[in-house]
Amino acid sequence: MTQEEELRQLANAFFRKLDKFHIDAIKEYVDHGESTLALEMLCDFLGDHGVVLSTFEYQEITRLGVLLDLDINDARLTYLQTLMTNH
């Protein structure tokens, strides 16, 4: 599976936590070759809406972040840690 496919799949996994507009915006950026920006947007949307993340969801976001050369110490990712549950 490509990074783009993984990012689309990850965005789809949040369909109950984010509205269709936000998910479609993320996928549109992926479709235009802007995967890093799409992941940053996903992080922003999750943070802005205070979406509670499972440990697995957070790990998937950070794993994709590493693959896309996103700074692991980026404020977006560190803020998402505060939204993570232990489940």
What does this structure look like?
The protein has 87 residues and is mainly alpha-helical. It has one domain (3-83). 66% of the residues lie in helices and 0% in strands. The chain is built from five helices and no strands. It has helices at 3-13, 20-31, 35-48, 55-67, 75-81. α1 packs parallel to α3 (35-48) and α3 crosses α5. The chain is globular. The mean pLDDT is 94.
Essential attributes:
5 helices; mainly alpha; 87 residues; MafI-like; MafI family immunity protein; globular; single chain
Number of helices: 5
| Alpha-carbon distance between the two ends | 26 Å
Total tally of structural domains? 1
Q: Using DSSP, what is the number of strands?
A: 0
| Portion of residues within helices | 55-70%
Low-confidence stretches: none
- Beta percentage is under 5%
| Cα Rg | 12 Å
SSE arrangement, N to C: HHHHH
Q: Given the helix and strand composition, which structural class is it? A: mainly alpha
In short:
This protein is an all-alpha fold and 87 residues long. The chain has 5 helices and no strands. 66% of the residues lie in helices and 0% in strands.
Mind sketching the topology for me?
Elements: H1 3-13, H2 20-31, H3 35-48, H4 55-67, H5 75-81
